[in-house]
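Weekly modeling sync, notes
Attendees: S.R. (lead), two postdocs, one rotation student

Agenda item 3: backlog of single-chain predictions. S.R. asked that every request posted to the team notebook include the full sequence so nobody has to chase files. The rotation student volunteered to paste the first one in as an example of the format we agreed on. Action items at the bottom.

Example entry:
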Amino acid sequence: MDVTILGHGSLMSGRGLVFSGTLQVKDTFIVTLKNCTRGFAKLSRYGDRFATDIETPQFPIEGERVSLAAPPNSEIETLALTVSLDDFSRLVKREGYSPAAIQQLAELAGKEKRSLASFLWRIQADVGHDPVLYRCQLFALTGFTSPHYIPHPVRLSEGYYALIFLAPGFEGTGSDNVVSVRQQTAIQGVMSTRETWRRKPNDDQLSYFLSCLLGGAHGVNVRDLLISVSDDQSLITRLRSHLRKELEEEVSCFLNATSLSAEIYEKEFGTRERRLTRSGLHAFLLTKETK
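Predicted structure, as returned to the notebook:
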């Protein structure tokens, strides 16, 4: 069984993916999400930093595979990675969810002759796409829920399904006995890059910013993460300095982390200039700094 996961933060770059070891990625592409907002919200398990989260005013979440020939619009973009269930289980563990619970859900999906993502979409549809009732159903089926990230289904316009990990907030995890990290830290809504930096002006947070922004090296539009940085010249300077150094190694790091060939990668994502221009990194790196 293969699973397509949508990375909205550090999963968008080789720098972030290398943390999970070498994956055997079978397909990768960019997906835009409708009516969603991205920001930083969940205190990480791996350092003194906030990780990204996605918010939407209404479920279900739907998306569309992006043609890189088309310019980006105002919708946020994620990086899709199609992997085997075994590799997906490694990413599940990284996100703070249970590989054993995923295996249980995959077995149930197999009995219905569905993909895992399609099965979870069916569960969510059965409760009217209410995210809390959906999480309650996952808990009832597996006996597990997470205060960190929980897999949610996304329907793509091409007719198939993917999974995205969302951090539960004050609305609940699906179990009264499991309080979300966002509730524990009183983070009501997603924060901008600038607001996050005000709370965590440290090397851990800067490193995480870079792992997200380097998704732009592959053409993922990251302007939504950059827009609030413009009023902090010190942060701009630090980000530019590190990005310029790491951009040269990012593609090779991504290829090593995903086991993709350079030929397949270039066919999907195109030339370096096109990728950087499309993502917003080219303009960010070239804009003159004010004194």
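Discussion: group reviewed the output briefly. Residues 233-258 form the longest helix (26 residues).
Action items: rotation student to repeat for the remaining queue; S.R. to check formatting next week.
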